[in-house]
Amino acid sequence: MSILTKNKIINTNFFYLLILGLFSFFVNLYYAKLGSFPIDTFLHYDSAYRILNDELPVRDYWIVSGLAVDLIQSFFFKIFGTNWFAYSLHASFFNCLITIFVYIFLTNIKISKLKAFIFSISFSLLSYTISGTPFVDLHATFFLLIATLLIINNLGRQKNYLWFFITFLIFLSFFSKQVPVTYAILIYSIVLLLFFIKNRDFKKISIIFFSIIFHMILLIFVLKINKIEFGNFYIQYLDYPKSIGSSRLNNFEFAINSFFNKYKFIIIPLFLLIFLKLKKSKIFSEESIGHLIFVIFTIILIFHQLMTKNQIFIYFLIPIIFGLLEQEIYTSKYKYKKYISIFMILILAMITTKYHIRYNENKKFHELTNIQLEKKIKAEKIHKNLRGLYWKNPHYEGSPSDEVLILNKAQKIISNTKEHEIMLISHYKFLDSITKKKMNYPSKTFTMDGASIPLKSNKHYNYYKNFLKNKIKKNNINKVFFFKHEKIPFKIITNYIEKNCYNITEDEIFYVFELKCFK
Questions:
Q1: I want to staple 60 with a disulfide (CB 3.0 to 4.6 A). Which of 55, 156, 166, 281 is the partner?
Q2: Chain centre to alpha carbon of residue 501
Q3: 207-216 contacts, C-beta under 8 A, 24 or more apart
Q4: What share of the chain is helix, strand, coil (3-state, %, to 5)?
């Protein structure tokens, strides 16, 4: 009888995991193809392609985040070829992975498998699908999420090897983006250190310490074999991003009404969870520390979201918080807990539907909400490698067909400049991989808000100026191209190159800087 029961449990778990895996994978694959916001959609496309061609971040192009994401994407390109499918496959696989992990976490905290399945379906619709393609903030956040859930599940267990894996996930999060994981490291360290000392669990402390040392040595080794100077890495990936964060903190503004309106479906259930937990948990118990860490994680993500000023991407927290509330209700003595649980699931279903329509159907994260997506066209008209994507760029004022025509003409112009090495300043970060000519992008993004490259007011301005000039000299670049319609400021170049070192010409598609001082 016990064997039969065990087999039923295994079969039920297998069925739920199979459905969750397939659903979370294909729902992301579907929504990834609807429209394109080039500056974000293709953030890791050409940079991953360049890694396969021995052009490395820090060494060959300026980078302030996304190192791990580029490396992982280059692996997908290596296996499946440099194309749209391999690109969206990366994010779809990640959506599948984190959804399954959330389901396992929820079942481990004694939530029924059916309810854990429902919460996980909601999570899969609110997590990576809002972007559909690899994105630094999402990778950084979800690596940290997995690490956080592992910490909660393993506070009192003796599976000490998992702390090495947790440390590895923390490093992956940091090398996806420096925040929010830096905030988490600072606060988690204090909480966990106090908890382990109180429980005299010094073995976990030593494992974490030596894991950190191991990963730091590994980093230095990887930099060394790829001929990336640590000083350059420090400036680009550590010191310059810190200056961006300091600037944003100094200019931080907070409006209580707007804040509550945006985050109410996170804040209200979170406060309810805290209230219920305070009523029953002992201080410094495994359960109370686990919930404290999750609360810290949630607060960190809200703060990070406020600081980045991006479209909101943290609504995936809602089904996890509801899952933790379900645990509280299940273990309580409430008379009508069955009906409370059903009511919660109905509320979650309505919230999920609301944000699914806003972020998946209407593509708000990539600023396609007010765009007529029905006018999208197949991106394979730009190049066969983009087959599967439907093209509609919210920042192009004309029709998608007109934009595709410009991109086709641009490819011909670029391919015909055989006598020169060129540099392209553009948000279309797929042209390097679909043409036969290197675009020599000096940076991953081109904005003049201080987030892409150092401005004149930044202490690293001269460093970047020399970095750009050395890149031009090293690669014998004679021309720098700007798409006319993109209206990227010329200051991307003129802030760093003397006026007597270039002439500006133009054709139908481009403004062209003809360089004179770098031969």
A1: 55
A2: 38
A3: 207/160, 207/161, 207/163, 207/164, 208/163, 208/166, 208/167, 211/163, 211/164, 211/167, 211/168, 212/167, 214/164, 215/167, 215/168, 215/171
A4: 65, 5, 30
Cβ pair 313, 130 in contact under 8 A: yes
Rounded Cα–Cα distance for residues 378 and 433 (Å): 18
Q: Return the SS3 of 138.
A: helix
Residue 488: strand, helix, or coil: coil
CA 246, distance to chain mean position in Å, is 21
Angle between helix 161-174 and 136-153 (nearest 10): 160
Measured between alpha carbons, how far is 161 from 93 in angstroms, rounded to an integer? 25
Which tens digit of pLDDT belongs to each residue from 252-308?
A: 667 788 888 999 999 999 999 988 877 666 667 788 899 999 999 999 999 999 888
d(CA 65, CA 54): 19
Closest CA to 345 of 334, 365, 330, 367: 330
Assign 3-class secondary structure to 240-254. Answer: HHHHHHHHHHHCCCC
- Of 488, 501, 405, 502, nearest to 448 (Cα)? 488
**Helix, coil or strand: residue 4:** helix
Find tokens 């593509």 and name the residue. Answer: 363
Neighbours of 413 (CB within 10 A): 15
Beta carbons within 8 Å of 360's beta carbon, 6+ residues apart: 27, 31, 125, 129, 130
> Considering only CA atoms, which of 99, 140, 119, 98 is closest in space to residue 305?
140
What pTM value is reported for the model? Answer: 0.94
Q: Which of 304, 249, 178, 231 is nearest to 460 (CA)?
A: 231
Rounded distance, CA 190 to CA 173, Å?
19
Residue among 275, 166, 277 nearest 212 (CA)? 166
Q: What are the DSSP calls for 67-124, one per residue? A: HHHHHHHHHHHHHH-SSHHHHHHHHHHHHHHHHHHHHHHHHHTT--HHHHHHHHHHHH
Q: Cβ of 181: how many Cβ atoms within 10 Å?
A: 25
pLDDT digits (tens, 9 = 90+) for 346-393: 999 999 999 999 999 988 988 877 666 667 789 999 999 999 999 988
Contact 429, 46 (CB under 8 A): yes
Please measure the distance between the N-terminal and C-terminal CA atoms of the chain and give it in whole angstroms. 83
| Residue 422, CA distances (Å) to 170, 397, 476, 514 in order | 38, 27, 8, 10
**CA nearest neighbour of 132 among 406, 390, 326, 340:** 390
Run of H or E residues at 511? strand 510-515
